[in-house]
Amino acid sequence: MLGNHGRGLTRALFTRPALALGRLGVSPNMLTVAGTVLTVTAAVTLLPQGHFVAGPLVLLVVLVADSFDGILARATGTSSVFGAFLDSTMDRLADGAVLGSLAAWAALSMSVGALRTVTVVAALAGMILAATVPYARARAESIGATANVGIAERTDRLIVALGATFIVGLGASQWVLTIALVYVAIASFITVVQRVWTVYQQTYRQTRSEGATA
């Protein structure tokens, strides 16, 4: 939901910088790949080591800059099917790196006990479900349905996870991160259910309509 409201703001703020990169010969696909490489590098080098202030701040900058590719593609009329495919695929790698790195930190740094177990499980569950959310939408579109509903889009998940990480880095209890990761996992699961139910309703209506006209 936050992503829907934030797109207009990022477009207003970053269209000129994106166009400036375009004039230098930078393509949207180049920005997509570069943003993913930077995100994965920052996540795996900072988060597992417990750099919970620098890590989220660096990732915030990189993830905001990651929106340049779509802005540049739309502003220059160079949007393409391959570009959309590449962007979605790279996003899955970036999301997996962030949540996987938080799972690694929990497994390596938290004291043995229920809190560590819940944190690791929530991070891994969130990583799997976060990948399932866009898959459900893509699979729906492949059969002619629409599944762009849900309470937890990519921006929502990252803001919650990285925001909690930053707060823990400032001295808050580790429980804050655990609760945030549990929320990400649950919200992602609810979003998957919402998308499955939406597609079911659409395909059911289509089947009934086809049966009525047969």
Number of separate strands: 0
| CATH superfamily placement | CDP-alcohol phosphotransferase transmembrane (TM) domain
How far from one another are the termini?
Answer: 40 Å
> What percent of the residues sit in helical stretches (DSSP H or I)?
over 70%
CATH architecture: Up-down Bundle
Uncertain segments: none
Query: What's the CATH topology name?
Result: Four Helix Bundle (Hemerythrin (Met), subunit A)
Concise synopsis of the structure shown:
The chain is an all-alpha fold.
Structure description:
With 214 residues, this protein is an all-alpha fold. It has one domain (2-213): CDP-alcohol phosphotransferase transmembrane (TM) domain (Four Helix Bundle (Hemerythrin (Met), subunit A), Up-down Bundle). It has eight helices and no strands. It has helices at residues 2-23, 28-46, 54-65, 68-76, 81-109, 114-142, 154-169, 175-213. Helix 2 (28-46) runs antiparallel to helix 3, helix 3 runs antiparallel to helix 7 (154-169) and helix 5 runs antiparallel to helix 6 (114-142). The termini are far apart. The model has no long low-confidence stretch (mean pLDDT 89).
Kindly list the characteristics that best describe this protein:
mainly alpha, Four Helix Bundle (Hemerythrin (Met), subunit A), 214 residues
Secondary structure layout:
Layout: H1 2-23, H2 28-46, H3 54-65, H4 68-76, H5 81-109, H6 114-142, H7 154-169, H8 175-213
Helix pairs in contact: 1-4, 2-3, 2-4, 2-5, 3-7, 5-6, 6-8, 7-8
